[in-house]
Write a structure and sequence with these properties.
Helix 3 runs parallel beside helix 5 and helix 8 packs parallel to helix 10. The chain is mainly α and 259 residues long. It contains 13 helices and no strands. The protein starts with a helix and ends in an 8-residue tail after the last helix. Helix content is 57%, strand content 0%. It has one domain.
């Protein structure tokens, strides 16, 4: 019974979201079953995958991260952007939803592939700005991974410049993205997203964000994504490389403090 409920719940949520994407107006059922007070149903003791489906139907960005339930994680990453437009209409506000989403990766890093990692990038982009609903329903977005990665760091930079996002939140997003890319057992990068372009995007980001008190922490969070690279020799861009020296100075241990 629980397996059938999981499949029906996923199908209902996915089809409802796809239907919404076909119109500028939100489609809502006359009876909103999943906005009834939570007292009508207890999630304790349920099949974990069924619990995950019900939480998403309650408009909560819930991930089922389990090595034995990779399909549940992939489905959640695909469908969460399709429900996130409703966060401003619910008690779960956008930033709280983003924090909740990111903290789930603290417990365990799932094994993603290029398609599911691209869905993750789309999730983060959608938390930070409004994405097209027609793009949301695209099943395999991996061919657009480079564009989504670039869009993410451009949005982070503009949000930091406008003080719409804290350095701590930006660092958390970048660090989680780095862990997902480096700790997954699979290669998560799309075949058409070359390392040089990825490094160029990171360089532009580092050279454009404001230098506030927590600026260095954001720089260091890029480490897992950046890898080993000569930023000074490898990029022909008209950007001030001064941030590299300032970051190095801030983390250099004075000679007298070395053991």
């Amino acid at each position: 019974m629980s397996v059938r409920a999981i499949h029906l719940g996923r199908a209902f949520c996915t089809l409802r979201c796809i239907q919404q994407s076909q119109s500028d107006r939100d489609f809502e059922p006359r009876v909103s079953w999943f906005e009834v007070p939570n007292s009508w149903l207890s999630l304790s003791g349920l099949n974990p995958e069924l619990e995950n489906v019900l939480r998403i139907l309650e408009v909560k960005p819930d991930l089922r991260i389990d090595p034995d339930a990779s399909l549940a994680t992939e489905w959640a990453l695909y469908v969460i952007p399709l429900i996130s437009h409703r966060y401003n209409e619910s008690d779960l506000k956008l930033r709280a939803a983003l924090d909740y989403f990111l903290h789930q990766f603290d417990r365990m890093i799932p094994n993603l592939d290029p398609s599911s990692f691209t869905d993750y990038l789309f999730c983060i982009n959608n938390f930070l700005c409004t994405m097209s609903r027609r793009d949301m329903v695209w099943k395999d977005k991996s061919r657009f991974q480079a564009e989504l990665f670039e869009h993410l760091f451009e949005t982070l930079a503009s949000s930091l410049q406008a003080r719409q996002l804290s350095m701590d939140t930006a660092a958390s997003i970048i660090y989680t993205t780095g862990r997902l890319s480096s700790e997954s057992e699979n290669n998560v990068w799309a075949h058409n997203f070359h390392n040089y372009r990825r490094q160029s995007i990171l360089y532009r980001f580092c050279s454009s964000i404001p230098e506030s008190d927590d600026w260095v922490g954001t720089m260091l969070s890029i480490g897992l994504l950046a890898g080993s690279h000569n930023y000074l020799m490898g990029h022909r861009v008209s950007r001030d490389p001064g941030w590299i020296y300032k970051a190095l100075e801030s983390v250099t241990v004075p000679a007298e403090d070395q053991d």
